[in-house]
Amino acid sequence: MEQQPPISDYGFLSDSRSGALVGKDGSIDWWCPHRFDGSAVFARLLDPGAGHFRLAPVGVGGPGYRVERAYLPDSLVLRTVHHTPHGSVAVVDALAAEVGARAHELGKNSPAVLIRVVEGLSGRVRMALDFAPRPEYGLLTPYLHDQPDGGVLAGAGPVVLVLHAGGLHLRAGLDRVTHEFEVSAGQVIGMDVAFGEAYGTPPARLDPLAALAETTQAWQAFRESHGYSGRYPELVKHSATVLTGLTYARSGAVAAALTSSLPERIGGDRNYDYRYSWLRDFSLTMRALWVAACPEETSRLFAWATRSIGRFGDEPVPVLFGLEGERDLSEHHCDHLRGYRGSRPVRIGNDAWRQRQLDVPGEVMSAVWRLRDYLGARFEVELREMVLGLTEQVAATWHLPDRGIWETREEERHYLSSKVSCWLTMDRAVGLADRLGDQADPRRWAKVRDEIRDAVLREGWNDRIGAFTGAFGSAELDASVLALPVTHFMPATDPRMRSTIEMVERELGTEDGLVRRWTADPAGFLLCSFWLVECLVMTGEPQRAEATFERVVGYANDVGLFSEQIDLATGMQLGNMPQALSHIGLINAAWRISEPDSY
């Protein structure tokens, strides 16, 4: 049985509307062309028969073959060079930008066209093309039709795809297009796959060579409009580019990851759909975009969040939304898919939207606090109502159990990180009271804030193990407590916090700087690893922080991408890819190293 490549084999393409993954073997194994959280036309990532577009030399992986890849500078245009015994050939892959799109226009009107350009570098290399679209995550096998202009149209259900391949004479097969051709040094062949709707917008027609040049310029112009003056500038700029690639430009929402159901453990069932935008990630994302000098993206993300939340009453604020603010993200299983290396179920949708997660208001309030100087001395009505509503909801519910930061699907508990986030809500509300009108009640809010703090210090500290633990009354360590100094709940130099950091590093950490979320967690969680870096800076250990940071960033793949976790035994990347939180953690840790006193 065919086995999917390692997760780290994949490079990320984006047009800030949708994204694709292309492997070292030249196969595009994931593409949801309508938008990030839309239906896939290539999903070999989750089942060998669920669709792909492979373009590579004949005999990939054989004797004398090697591959090297890199993004074109300041872009998500990926260049892969295949070296064979007969010569070398480059394949440059991109998702096309709209013609003329520059700076913050990138992605707002993307044409939904995949570009692949083959360039002969030396010798004469025989190439193989295998185009096998399978819309609806592999449920549909399209009809293929030869076109008068030399292309091939694939149509099934709501989807139309049109493949063009330069001067090559392609012929439609029964369920795919296969073709072999030779490329000589200096020869260039442009290909494109354009997406359209069966009963709507027809596929765009682009010149792939011109579109590739235009797309490269669009990405580079975007990066030129953003600056960063801290340590590790190349790493930070690249991670900021990845975050831009995960941003749905039409709304400003940032997808947590490109993919669904890549497992936390091979063969396990913790396989979730991360193609939505989490309010929990909100303040971390805002901080990262702020650090990477992306003020317009910060403002648009904030506007998306306030619109998505809307008016609310006593019901918990949802933890996540669709990329245009959809609330109902009900989950179902794709039982026809085998899952990545047999890891089932494959989930579409995410039922975490139904959970009570008390940390969410604190993330939103932290973002409001960060933007307070841009939001005016007196907030507009809708913003004022949202802030007041979040504050009063936390004041009334902070004592309840919830599902916690890791979104457990087991029983609710009194998670420490959730209580700290409730404290954060009340603390920020007190600081913002003078902008909230007559309904502000800072004296009462301060009392609730102090009650929460007392409860955390009393119920969250475990004297026997000498650390704050994951939940009230628990003896189990949890790496989420590393967020306490990051959120300024408690100084990292406080004896209890310092003891906690040492315990987490000793019991949940590894020599390579990776940090597990809890004792039984089989993998290092990259965000927690970067939190450890921040904590080490704040305890006055900058050299150890830098050494840890440099070890952790060494787990990126060859083109600088992170998934969610790292397998401790093999070093394999695990979880959905690329993962926004991992790149956010890198940016924030690099800035903490650069500016230890940054807020």
Question: What report would you give on this structure?
Answer:
The chain is α+β, with helices and mostly antiparallel strands and 599 residues long. It folds into two domains: 7-224, Distorted Sandwich (Beta-galactosidase, Chain A, domain 5); 226-594, Glycosyltransferase (Alpha/alpha barrel), CATH 1.50.10. It has helices at residues 208-224, 233-245, 282-291, 295-309, 360-370, 372-375, 381-397, 416-432, 442-459, 483-486, 495-507, 526-538, 542-553, 580-594; strands at residues 11-14, 19-22, 27-31, 52-57, 66-71, 78-84, 87-95, 113-132, 143-146, 152-156, 159-165, 177-184, 188-197, 247-248, 253-254, 277-278, 320-321, 332-333, 347-348, 461-462, 467-468, 523-525, 565-567, 573-574. The radius of gyration is 25 Å and the shape is globular. Residues 231-591 form the GH15-like domain. Keywords: Hydrolase. This is Glycoside hydrolase family 15.
